[in-house]
Structure formats: structure tokens, C-alpha cells
Amino acid sequence: MASATGSGSGTGTGDCEGEEQDDSSSHSEVLELTETLNSLSVDKSQKDYEDELSLFRQEWQRELEVSPSHHRDVTKPVPDSTDSSLQTEEDKAKSLFRLGVEMEKGGNLYEAIKHYKKAIQILPDVESQIYDASEVKVVAHAEVEEEETNNTVSDESDDEDAVEGEEFVSRIQRILTRKGHFIQANCPTKSGHMSWLPYEVLQLILRWVVSSDLDSISLERVSAVSRGFYVAARANELWRSMCIRTWGAECGTPRVHEFASWRQMYIERPRLNLHGCYISKTTYLRHGENSFQDQFYRPWYFIDYYRYLRFFPEGLVLMWTTPDEPINCVAHLKYRNARQSQGIMSGHYRLVGTKVIIVIKKTPEKKAPQSSNTRFRARRKEPHEQEQIYHIELELRNVRSRRNWSLVWEHYAVSTRGQWSNFELGSSKFPPFVFSRVRNYTAESYEPLTS
């Protein structure tokens, strides 16, 4: 019995130990499996995270490339004081203003105003300086383009310059026709330009330049501006009106007087210059009276005076004899209604060939009536001025290369109470008139040239 029980107990214990050993081995295997699974899941999750991060980076880079540039520029920080210390105050203000402009384009108005204020505090006229700098660049670029076009045009027009027997005006007209525009702007402008006007309006402007006073000098200066003005200033209708205004409706035609054009007829045919006045200076010596203290001393006086003639297109002439210098006198002869109190006499003239005939009638001035009280008035009659008529004939001559520059005395007579008195015309007493240009006469235009 004992053995049975012992054996049974032994066998029982042995079975339990075997079961415990199996359980421990299976548990360790389970732990290893879970660890491997956990390691696999962690690695997998890390790989997934890395893949997602790389995809996010790629998409973000694509969005930055597709988005406009100013969105990226707006996010730029303001330059530090360490970097701006190397710049001048003007450069700082300009950079702040430009940054404000970019922020305003991006929609950040509040930040843009901040930058504007900072820039204006540093440099109050920063906006105007930036604008002027940009305009200078535009003008420089336009000049470069113009030089290139001029070079190309000059290269293209070399063949046209070689045409024989062609007039200069017709050649320029062909060049303008080939270009397609009459007048071209020299630099780009934001406002209206003369090139926008039609040809008829341009001719009307030139008639105002010539004006009713026949200012041909100003017309020639306008023609020197460009090719278009050169052609417009040589229109036959314009110079025909000037010839009719000068010599009347019976002036004839250029063919009758053997001229090629109306312009040549106006320039070469004898006529009076109207953009100034003719001046004659007379100088002589006069004997003085002997001194009552010294009978051997006799003084001599050196006397000089001036005669002025100013002609107008309608046949009016102004004459003035005065000892004053021309610089003080020519301004008084600008207008037709001259002051007779200063001694300026007005009359009429006529041009016949090279002779200028002048008739001036001097009437006595009407004085204001004096008071009726004659108690303290001197009992003597005041001299009464007589009416006088001056008849002058002058010959128009050229002086070297200057046309119609001198007027030489041919006849001079004065009538008083119907009696004529002629003067002996000597070179010392009656020197010739010499023309002098006065710029003030043609500074303004009151009426255009009529046809």
C-alpha cells in the first residue's frame, strides 16, 4: 500500500512539474511574439508618419510655387537696423516706401500705412523723389529707343538722299508720308501732345504765330523745331496771305515777278521790316556865346538826337524825334495809339518799289480851358501852334547780306500855313535810318493772319 501510494504521489508530482514547464515556455513565446509585433507596428507607424510629412512638404512647396509672388514678398520682415545702418537716410526712406507699396498691393493696408509714415518722417518728399527717378529711367529708355529708330530711319533714308533734282521740302514730305505720322513726340507724355492735332488746326496755330503784325521771324523759328513743322511752315497759302498783307491785293503772282514761290517772293522782294524800328542818329557841333568875363573864351556844344520810325502792316507809321537813347524810347512805339504829348507823331506810308513815301500831319494839342479868373494871370497871349504837314521820301536799301536794312533820305519838306519849305539833305544833318530789331514788338499776338 505504501508503495502504491508513494508511486502514486510520485507520479502526481511529476505530472504537475511537466505542466508548469510547458506553461512557462508558451508564455515566453507569447511575450516574444508581442514584442516583435509591437516593434513591427512602431516601425510601420514611423514610416507612415514620415511618408505623410514628406507628402505635406511636397504639397506646401507646390502651393508656394503656384501662388503669386507678392504674397511671398509681403511676408518678408522689415530690414534690421544693423543692415540699414549701412544705408543713407534717403535709401532707408525709399526702401520703406517701396515695402509699403508692396504691402498695400497684398492687402495689408495697416502695415502699409505704418511704413508710409516711417518713410515720410525720414524724408518728407520721398514719393516725389521715387517718381522723378522712375521718370528719368523712362526718358532715358525712350531716348535710347529714339536713337535706335533714328539710326534705322537714317539708314533707310540714305537711298532717298541720293535722288538728283529733288527739292528738300518734297523729300521731307515723302519721308513723313512713309512714316505715317506728321509730328512725333520726342518723349512719352501723359497729357495731350501736338501730334494729336490735325493739319488744319496746326495751320491755324501758325497763323497766330505770324499774327496780324507779320512776324515772319517767329515762323522761321517754329519751322526749325521738327520736319513736320518745317513742311507746315512752308505752306503756299500761308506765305500768299503774308504777301497780300504786305503789298495789297494787287501784289501779283510769283511768276509775274520771276520768283519760284510765294515764300521766295516775300523774302527777296523789297519790303519794310516790321519786327523793330528804324533809327537815325544825328550829331553836330553848335557854337556857344562868349562869356562876359572872358571875351576870348567861346564854348562849343556837342549835340546828338535820334529819329525813330516804326511801321505797321496796315500803312500806319510812327515818327519820333527825341534826344533820349533807344533803350528808353523803343518801348513807347510798340502800340499804334502813341501819346502825342511825348512828341510822337502818327501818319501813313506807302511802299512803291524801293521808295517809301510818308505823310504825317501834326495837329496842335487841345489844351484844357483855363479858369475865368484873370486877376493874377499875365496879360499876354500864349503862342498858338500851327498845323504842320511833313512829307518824307526814303529809299529802301540792303546793307551787305541784310535785306531792307537801311532807309536813305530822298526828299524832306514841311508845310506850314500852306507854304512848303524843303530841306537840303546832307549826310551830316540827315544820316540814313538803320533797322534795329525789338523783341518786345513780337512777344504777343492779338489777331491771327487773315487770308
Q: How does the helix and strand content classify structurally?
A: alpha+beta
Instruction: Note the total helix count.
Output: 14
Order of helices and strands: HHHHHHHHHHHHHEEEHEEEEEE
* DSSP E strands, number: 9
Radius of gyration computed on alpha carbons = 52 Å
Biggest sheet: strand arrangement: 1-2-3-4-5-6-7-9
- Note the gap between the termini: 166 Å
Mass-distribution shape: elongated
Poorly predicted spans: 1-22, 69-86, 152-160
Which band does the percent of strand residues land in?
15-25%
Mean pLDDT: 77
Quick rundown:
With 451 residues, the protein is an alpha+beta fold.
How is this structure best described in words?
The structure is a single chain. Helix 4 runs antiparallel to helix 5 (109-122) and helix 12 packs parallel to helix 13 (262-268). The protein has 451 residues and is of the alpha+beta class. The termini are far apart. It is elongated and about 160 Å long. It has 14 helices and 9 strands.
Label this structure with key terms.
single chain, 451 residues, alpha+beta, 8-stranded antiparallel β-barrel, elongated
Fold blueprint:
Elements: H1 2-66, H2 69-74, H3 81-84, H4 89-106, H5 109-122, H6 126-156, H7 158-161, H8 168-179, H9 199-210, H10 216-223, H11 227-232, H12 236-247, H13 262-268, E1 276-287, E2 300-311, E3 316-322, H14 326-329, E4 345-352, E5 355-362, E6 388-399, E7 402-416, E8 419-422, E9 433-437
Antiparallel strand pairs: 1-2, 1-9, 2-3, 3-4, 4-5, 5-6, 6-7, 7-8, 7-9
Helix pairs in contact: 4-5, 12-13
